[in-house]
């Protein structure tokens, strides 16, 4: 199986002329002439970026997904390739509805007629991992039933094995390989894919996001019906809305686009900084708009999480960026360990200023985060910035937010929308509100610690006495050794003098 897949990949590489990516490296440059002679029949008229995109589409959905992830890594790819990979569309023909029924019955352990009052065999959406059918429960509630594509797991495992091999080669062959950590990127991709293969994981993600935004006037998350959910089947509340990309339909429905664009920014920063848990696949196909001007989130297979340390450094960087305090951006990168300690702050500050200053005081229609990120990643090469794999999804999500904002309201002022939110969040974390919140969080620990505090202090005192006694013992031993060394030295000196005098 692996061998057949490897031969197919090799054929696609040759057919689309992707060998030039490898043969451009000095270690294998001598093979370029040989390949030209062997593959004389090729006619490579299209640019390399286009040929790479077409090759990934030919190799199938897993490589398409990987190309989509790579399109966000402008630290790893030249601009022309990253832009072209961003055009990849994960559109896969649906599998037969009868096969979906077989998966549902085998997974949930009951006949379809006992599970759903109605079930449409024709899917309403189809992707590389699963497809979605419309159904109705016996209590009348409309639901969306997501069914895992049969036989997809072995295909994914085979392709992931090949991607790991390719990542190892990139790390060994290219100068920037270790800094860019391609194997860690593949490992992250591996994790996301396996999460998507277990629909119970997606159900948990949806339930968590729904709890985080319960009662929100900005975002709706569908309810999960766990009695009709398994690793291969996910049943969610059916959501009616207008796809976010249909601007004309939104305007016709009376949706306030400016308000919607502002909601998008606030939802993003709420997920990242307040919850540390964010929907990481917010492309237009996964976002609908309800009649009451709220967003509807769909497809929860990919989510991102951030630690408190990540959130703190991100908030510091964002606020410093909004205040044009480029020196604080530089020091925050050094403090976080993303930049080597020996980096000169003044040089990093000047590089960040050069990349970011031109975009201020402009509406979002005149700002491209892609270009800003590209400049920052070019700076990262110069300063040996270690790319943080846990932030790749955050970067991808931010780019999606940029695209949505530009579509809905080209005049949206991102800074004015985001800055008050971040200032409020920092006050909650570092100000008096943060102090009170931390006391509440730590109260159970203090309740358990206080009764045992006298015993612990006493034990600490005993330990200190032992340490002090040991210290004085060492001092006495050192003084004794010093006296012996002094005596020996004196004897040797006397012996040398007597020999010299004699």
UniProtKB/TrEMBL annotation:
It holds the Pfam family ABC1. Pathway: Cofactor biosynthesis; ubiquinone biosynthesis [regulation]. The chain crosses the membrane at residues 483-501. It is found in: Cell membrane. The keyword Cell membrane applies. It is a single-pass membrane protein. Its EC number is 2.7.-.-. Residues 88-332 form the ABC1 atypical kinase-like domain. It comes from the Bacteria. ATP binds at residues 124-132, 146. The active site is at 281 (proton acceptor). Its main location: membrane. CDD domains: UbiB. Keywords: ATP-binding, Cell inner membrane, Cell membrane, Kinase, Membrane, Nucleotide-binding, Transferase, Transmembrane, Transmembrane helix, Ubiquinone, Ubiquinone biosynthesis. InterPro entries: ABC1_dom, Kinase-like_dom_sf, UbiB, UbiB_bact, UbiB_kinase. Belongs to the ABC1 family. UbiB subfamily. HAMAP family: UbiB (MF_00414). Is probably a protein kinase regulator of UbiI activity which is involved in aerobic coenzyme Q (ubiquinone) biosynthesis. This is Probable protein kinase UbiB. It comes from Chitiniphilus purpureus.
């Amino acid at each position: 199986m692996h061998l057949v897949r490897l031969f197919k990949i090799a054929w696609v590489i040759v057919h689309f002329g992707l060998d030039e990516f490898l043969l451009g490296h000095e270690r294998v440059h001598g093979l370029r002439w040989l390949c030209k002679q062997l593959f004389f029949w090729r006619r490579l008229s299209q640019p390399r970026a286009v040929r790479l995109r077409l090759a990934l589409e030919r190799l199938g959905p897993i490589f398409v997904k990987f190309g989509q992830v790579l399109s966000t890594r402008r630290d790893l790819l030249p601009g022309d390739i990253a832009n072209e990979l961003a055009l990849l569309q994960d559109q896969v023909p649906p599998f037969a509805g009868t096969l979906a029924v077989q998966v549902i019955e085998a997974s949930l352990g009951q006949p379809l007629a006992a599970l759903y009052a109605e079930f449409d065999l024709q899917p309403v959406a189809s992707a590389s991992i699963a497809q979605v059918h419309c159904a109705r429960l016996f209590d009348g509630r409309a639901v969306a039933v997501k069914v895992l594509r049969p036989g997809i797991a072995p295909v994914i495992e085979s392709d992931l094995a090949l991607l790991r091999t390719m990542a190892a080669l990139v790390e060994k062959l290219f100068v920037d390989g270790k800094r860019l950590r391609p194997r860690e990127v593949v490992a992250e991709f591996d994790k996301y894919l396996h999460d998507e293969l277990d629909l119970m994981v997606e159900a948990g993600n949806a339930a968590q996001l729904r709890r985080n935004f319960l009662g929100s006037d900005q975002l709706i998350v569908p309810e999960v019906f766990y009695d009709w959910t398994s690793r291969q089947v996910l049943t969610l509340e059916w959501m009616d809305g207008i796809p976010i990309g249909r601007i004309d339909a939104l305007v016709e429905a009376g949706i306030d686009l400016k308000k919607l664009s502002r909601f998008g920014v606030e939802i993003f920063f709420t997920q990242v900084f307040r919850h540390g848990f964010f929907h990481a696949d917010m492309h237009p196909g996964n976002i609908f708009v309800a009649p009451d001007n709220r967003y509807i989130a769909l497809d929860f297979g990919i989510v991102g999480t951030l630690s408190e340390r990540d959130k703190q450094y991100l908030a510091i960087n964002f606020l410093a960026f909004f205040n044009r305090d480029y020196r604080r951006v530089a020091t925050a990168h050094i403090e976080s360990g993303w930049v080597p300690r020996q980096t000169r702050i003044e040089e990093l500050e000047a590089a960040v200023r050069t990349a970011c200053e031109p975009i201020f005081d402009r509406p979002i229609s005149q700002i491209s985060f892609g270009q800003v990120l590209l400049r920052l990643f070019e700076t990262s090469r110069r300063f040996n910035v270690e790319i943080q794999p846990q932030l790749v999804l955050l970067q991808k999500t931010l780019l999606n937010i940029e695209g949505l904002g530009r579509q809905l309201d080209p005049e949206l002022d991102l800074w004015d929308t985001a800055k008050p939110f971040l200032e409020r969040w920092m006050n909650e974390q570092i100000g008096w509100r943060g102090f009170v919140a931390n006391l509440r969080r730590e109260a159970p620990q203090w309740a358990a610690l206080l009764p045992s505090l006298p015993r612990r202090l006493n034990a600490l005192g005993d330990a200190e006495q032992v340490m002090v006694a040991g210290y004085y013992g060492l001092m006495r031993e050192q003084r004794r050794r010093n006296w012996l060394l002094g005596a020996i030295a004196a004897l040797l000196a006397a012996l040398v003098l007597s020999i010299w005098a004699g």
